[in-house]
Amino acid sequence: MPTAHPLCKVSEMPPGSRKLVTIGGRDIGVFRLEDGRFFGLRNRCPHRGAPLCAGRLMGLVTAERPYQLVRQREGEILRCPWHGWEFDLTTGRSVFMPEGVRVKSYPVRVQDAPEPAVDKFDVTESEGIVVLWIE
Amino acid sequence: MNVTMKNQSTPLAEAKPRIRVVDADVHHNIRDKSDLYPYLASIERKRLEEHGIPRNTSLYQANGGWKGARADTFDAGEEVDPRSNFDMFQKKLLDACSVDVAILQVESTPSLVALADIDYSAALIRAINDWSLEHWVARDARYRLSLTIPMQDPAMAVKEIERLGGHPAVIAAYVVCGSPRLYGKREFDPIYAACIDHGLALSLHFSNEGFGMNPPPTAAGFPSYYGETYLIRPQFYQAHLSSFLFEGTFEKFPKLKVVCCESGFGWVPAFRWRADMAWKELRWQTPWIKRLPSEYLEEHVRFTTQPFEESEPPGAVDEIVGWMNGAKTLLYSSDFPHWDFDPPESIPSRFGLHVRRQILAENALSTYPKLAGLAGA
């Protein structure tokens, strides 16, 4: 049964920001992209255990043919701070082997007035709450 | 194979007695060229003020990680080079990885030893060695220094070893692979004699191939991409080790220890086999080589583990470790704070407690003469 974990008010996470949380012993990075979308990713690289969510965000760089670089999906690829393994922030799948190498991703949604637990955020106006879901 | 691979998992923290960790390859640096001013004569200082330290990385203008470092080491902000952040090193390397001894090999060395003006080069090298001892080694007892020497001029290199080689925390001479001449050539012999006189190992690290006065990094010139340079590093070491072997360097200097840093070790067994094969077939041409090359290599040459081989299947690397007697010849290194950093846990627990202890510490204690006193501590 999925459980909801309210994190903060939306205004506390402006576009381009990220937040580290620990829930049930799991370190999870919550990212808000420049376009406003939220994503959650386990903060541990499956390669050598680096704090993955301390990595840089970049675009997806591809080339149909040698030397013909294409850069797209700016800010949606997380590059591990140690050895540079790239992960798709929206799915948790690695870029180099999407089927075989991945990191746990978590849905993050903005909700109006979810659980009683959000009282602690002192929501006086109709502002959304950032909620992380763990299945 | 020689390694006993017990199917056991012993977390480092629970191992008793606690495994000591010696990190054989760590890269600190000055924050700004002005850090060196107090250690320079006025004329050299003025030259440094005006022209700065040359960068030797312009060939590719690329590296891994973030500006070549772990992206999570920019604790003091984007503009402060993590290599210059003493407090961050203590926190994220020495404390976080329980490192007992970290061997410093300063980041600027390749730039300084690539200078053709040997007097200016030697002056900058003296300055950065003095600065390293005062600002890093003296401030944390866990540090040792691998002494930068101006290898491009053997007489000057000997002078630097004689000047600082007697310092108790100076435990190796730091040399890069890029060179106009192979290091087994007899003109370098006085350097090895000085190393032995002062209890220093020779620490060999790739860099400067194709830079400054040096020949291109391959027999066919320059690769285009940084990733290529990553792959071709083993040949730099193979060239110098072949030179040591066939010039008889280890016959001339029975106490010399050479540490090959940061180019993996998967290639070592094949290199040993081929060296033995060549010696058996061509022995009469270099009869001063008395023993199998693999025996010299096993006695005199060590390899640091980072970046640790990622074999497929994963267990295949265990065989390689056995074939090269890695329980004796491998030294753990992290390469902190570089992006391809390996934590001590990179040495697999399936190696078993004994082999891990050898690789993580004991082998280093029997490689660097000045660390021998720590054995059994």
Compact overview of the structure:
With 135 residues, chain A is mainly β. Chain A has no helices and 10 strands.
How would you describe the overall organization of this protein?
The complex is a heterodimer of chains A (135) and B (377). Chain A has 135 residues and is mostly beta strands. Chain A has a single domain, classed as Rieske Iron-sulfur Protein. Chain A has no helices and ten strands. In chain A, the strands form three sheets. In chain A, strands 2-3-4-8 form a four-stranded antiparallel sheet, with no helix packed on it. In chain A, strands 1-10-9 form a three-stranded antiparallel sheet, with no helix packed on it. The radius of gyration of chain A is 16 Å and the shape is globular. In chain B, 36% of the residues lie in helices and 10% in strands. Chain B is built from 14 helices and eight strands. Chain B has helices at residues 42-51, 86-95, 109-113, 118-135, 154-164, 189-197, 226-231, 233-247, 249-252, 268-282, 293-300, 316-323, 326-329, 352-365; strands spanning 22-26, 101-104, 143-148, 170-176, 201-205, 258-261, 301-304, 330-331. The longest helix of chain B has 18 residues, at 118-135. The model of chain B is unreliable at 1-17 (pLDDT under 50). The A-B interface holds A 48-51, 54-56, 79, 81-84 and B 64-66, 70-73, 339-343, 345-346.
Strand and helix layout:
The complex is a heterodimer of chains A (135) and B (377).
Chain A (H helix, E strand, L loop, with lengths): L2 E7 L8 E6 L2 E7 L5 E5 L13 E8 L5 E11 L6 E3 L16 E2 L1 E4 L17 E6 L1
Antiparallel strand pairs in A: 1-10, 2-3, 3-4, 4-8, 5-6, 6-7, 9-10
Chain B lengths: L21 E5 L15 H10 L34 H10 L5 E4 L4 H5 L4 H18 L7 E6 L5 H11 L5 E7 L12 H9 L3 E5 L20 H6 L1 H15 L1 H4 L5 E4 L6 H15 L10 H8 E4 L11 H8 L2 H4 E2 L20 H14 L12
Parallel strand pairs in B: 1-2, 2-3, 3-4, 4-5, 5-6, 6-7, 7-8
